[in-house]
Specification:
The structure is a single chain. The protein is mainly α. It has five helices and no strands. The longest helix is centred in the first third of the chain and has 12 residues. The protein is globular, with a radius of gyration of 10 Å.
Length: 68
Amino acid sequence: MGNIISTRIYELRKENNLSQLELAKRIGVTQKAIDFWEKGTNEPKATYIIRLAQVLSVTTDYLLGLEN
């Protein structure tokens, strides 16, 4: 895994018992996008960071590593 956001997306997805595909469907991206984000290959755009935070019930600051 790559950076803080990739690690947090992965951990929160697992905590919420979501597959990559389920999370992708909830925020409107492909499963491959989730895979790339979790591996640190790419980072989500701001609009997807907001959707991720809503679906995973955390703040955007938490996802970005600005708060614990």
